[in-house]
Fold this sequence. Notes:
Layout: H1 2-23, H2 27-50, H3 52-55, H4 63-72, H5 74-87
Helix pairs in contact: 2-4, 4-5
Amino acid sequence: MKTVILWSVFIGSGVLLSLVLLRSRGAFQWLGKICLHLAFASILLYMMNLFSGYTHIELPLNAVTVGTVSILGLPGLAALAALKLWVL
């Protein structure tokens, strides 16, 4: 019963947040920029994994790596690659 209440509060707050965000005119531009950054980060990580035969660096394509590269850009990709080389 507790999980049902928690999920309903989570879904309800998500719906209300989306309604508030989509009422403003700049929300669509903001949402478009976020989608563009996420797509560009995914493409960069895919290209990095495509050339892993030459570089021997394989980075997983998951939410954490895509989020890091989308926020930090190319320095974030370089930081993830350096972290991968340093840890393993």
